[in-house]
Every structure is written in structure tokens, then in C-alpha cells.
């Protein structure tokens, strides 16, 4: 059974979705504004937030931001008819499982909600765009949310998230080998970290995480992530 918070100023849409989820045995709460959503999160713990982007008052990106300050483990899905709007970048930086279009593809949405994981945020530092996109999609397929950086300087903007694990390439632009890893470890002390590299010889001597040699078995990596996530209890 999942616990879902649905935020949309279109009450009819939100209530229709809530009915579908409740018929499937879930708990769904409807809020028609960001302010109502904040009240709901203070009163109850939810697994997934689903929010529209364009609403009077608080935008969907602001809803994600403020609700995550209350409950960092909340998974988030955003729906929008305007994929080019600037606030979407803010929402993505906060970490969203998916951005869905309007009208919403209901089967895809229900499937996403069913597999979304609480406390499932993964920091992903990788400069290869194809590998980054592939890992992001594979993580999403298992219900994990990825928040990414492609260079050493970009790591700094990851400080507002609460990940349970990190996947970090040792060699990314903007600094010497291992600098992105050093910054991730400084931002998130004690975080379970997987180093993805074809250059294990430059691994820091004090590294106590997990080495994943490129090219790697994606299935084995996902299994290891799921094991780490499962131990959070």
C-alpha cells in the first residue's frame, strides 16, 4: 500500500486520480495548493508527491522544494503542459522521479507511483551524457530518483538533497582525478559511495566505498543499490 499526496489546482483531475489509486488499495490525499500540501506533509508521512507545475501561488517546483525541507525522503513526480518552463530546472535539481506531460498518460503515471521509492535518491556524477542518461533511466525503472552533476563545479549544487547512495566517476571535468569524489564525500559524510571508473589506479588511498570498474554490469550495480536501500529499514 502506498501513501500519495496529489497537488493540483484542478481538483477534478486530482480527485479522479485519487479514486483510481484508492480503488487499487492505496491511500491518496488531495491538495489544491502548495499551502495545503505543506499542511498535509506536517500531519502525515507520504511515499510520493505528485504535483502540477503551474498553480496559483506556489509553483510545483516550490512545492517540491518546501515539502522536501519537511520530509527529505519524499519521492516526487511533476506534471506539466509547459516542459520548457524555467522552474523545471529547479525541480530537477531537487530530484524528481519523472516529469510527465499534460494530458497525463494515466497508465504510465500509475506504474510510476507504484514503483517509486521513499528515501530513494541517488547522486550521480558522470560526464558521459549517454551513460548518464542510461543510468538515470535504469534507476527510474527501479523507482530510484537520480540527481546529477557532469563536472566538479556542478557537485556543489547537490548539497540541498538527501541521498542514500552516490555513483561517482573518478575522472570528470573541472578538477583533478578524484576531486568530484572528494566533494561528494565532504557534502555527504558516511554516504555509501560507488566509484565508477576505468582508472582504479587513481582511487584515493582512504576510499572506503565500493569500486565499480568500467565497463560494468548494470544489473549487478542495481542489485547492490537495492541491497543498500533495503538496509535503511
Automatic annotation (TrEMBL):
It holds the Pfam family Response_reg. It comes from the Bacteria. The keyword Phosphoprotein applies. SMART domains: REC. The modification 4-aspartylphosphate is found at residues 52, 169. Residues 3-117, 121-229 form the Response regulatory domain. Keywords: Phosphoprotein. InterPro entries: Bact_response_regulator, CheY-like_superfamily, Sig_transdc_resp-reg_receiver. The keyword Iron does not apply. This is Response regulator.
Amino acid at each position: 500500500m502506498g501513501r500519495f499526496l496529489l497537488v493540483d489546482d484542478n481538483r477534478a483531475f486530482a480527485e479522479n486520480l485519487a479514486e483510481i489509486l484508492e480503488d487499487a488499495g492505496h491511500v491518496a490525499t488531495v491538495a489544491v495548493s502548495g499551502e495545503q500540501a505543506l499542511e498535509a506533509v506536517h500531519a502525515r508521512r507520504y511515499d510520493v508527491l505528485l504535483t502540477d507545475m503551474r498553480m496559483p501561488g506556489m509553483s510545483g517546483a516550490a512545492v517540491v522544494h518546501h515539502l522536501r525541507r519537511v520530509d527529505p525522503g519524499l519521492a516526487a513526480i511533476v506534471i506539466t503542459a509547459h516542459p520548457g518552463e524555467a522552474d523545471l530546472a529547479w525541480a530537477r535539481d531537487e530530484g524528481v522521479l519523472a516529469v510527465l506531460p499534460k494530458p497525463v498518460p494515466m497508465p504510465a503515471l500509475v506504474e510510476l507511483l507504484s514503483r517509486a521509492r521513499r528515501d530513494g535518491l541517488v547522486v550521480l556524477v558522470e560526464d558521459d551524457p549517454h551513460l548518464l542518461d542510461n543510468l538515470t533511466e535504469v534507476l527510474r525503472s527501479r523507482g530510484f530518483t537520480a540527481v546529477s552533476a557532469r563536472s566538479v563545479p556542478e557537485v556543489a549544487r547537490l548539497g540541498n538533497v538527501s541521498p542514500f547512495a552516490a555513483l561517482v566517476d573518478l575522472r570528470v571535468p573541472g578538477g583533478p582525478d578524484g576531486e568530484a569524489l572528494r566533494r561528494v564525500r565532504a557534502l555527504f559524510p558516511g554516504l555509501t559511495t560507488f566509484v565508477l571508473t576505468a582508472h582504479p589506479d587513481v582511487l584515493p588511498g582512504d576510499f572506503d566505498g565500493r569500486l565499480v570498474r568500467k565497463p560494468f554490469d548494470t544489473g549487478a550495480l542495481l542489485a547492490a543499490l537495492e541491497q543498500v536501500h533495503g538496509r535503511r529499514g
